[in-house]
Every structure is written in C-alpha cells, then in structure tokens.
Amino acid sequence: MDAEIIDNPEKHRFELPLDGGALAVSYYKEEDGRVVLLHTEVPQELSGQGIGSRLARGVFESLRAKGRRVIAKCPFMAAYASRHREYLAMLDG
C-alpha cells in the first residue's frame, strides 16, 4: 500500500492509488507559476487511516523536488503544511 503519487495534469489532480482500485486525490490549478491546492478527497470508507497524510506528504515532496511554489487553499493541505514545517517555506499566500 505504498504507491507512488501520480500527477495527472489532464485532470488537474494528484492521485494516490489504493487497494481495490480506489483513489485518494488532491485537486489543483496552476496560477501565476504556482500550484494552488484546492481540495483533497479520500474515500469515506478509508477515512482515519492516514491516507490523506500520505497523499499530502507525497504531493509536497513532489512539488518540492520540482522547486514549485504552493498556495494551499485546501484546509487539509494547509493544516498538514503547518504541522510539517519542512514544507512551510514552499507556501505563498
């Protein structure tokens, strides 16, 4: 269950494939050269298992590796970044 995060630019989302074909996703848009994280979804039946945090870590690591700046409009992603100070320097706004 340690799948890689997939950037799916056609659907404007990062995806975390899960067992049984389910996906956890984080939607984004590009704005002024930055990635705006809009909304994160984890299948309800898998809620509370740390999947959202795995997705968030993967998203931030992927974006950090590319040197991207981030605006976290998604409350979940903003809260995750605030708890993981290594990602705060990436944030704008």
TrEMBL record:
Pfam families: Acetyltransf_CG. It comes from the Bacteria. Residues 6-92 form the N-acetyltransferase domain. InterPro entries: Acyl_CoA_acyltransferase, Gcn5-rel_NAT, GNAT_YJDJ. This is N-acetyltransferase.
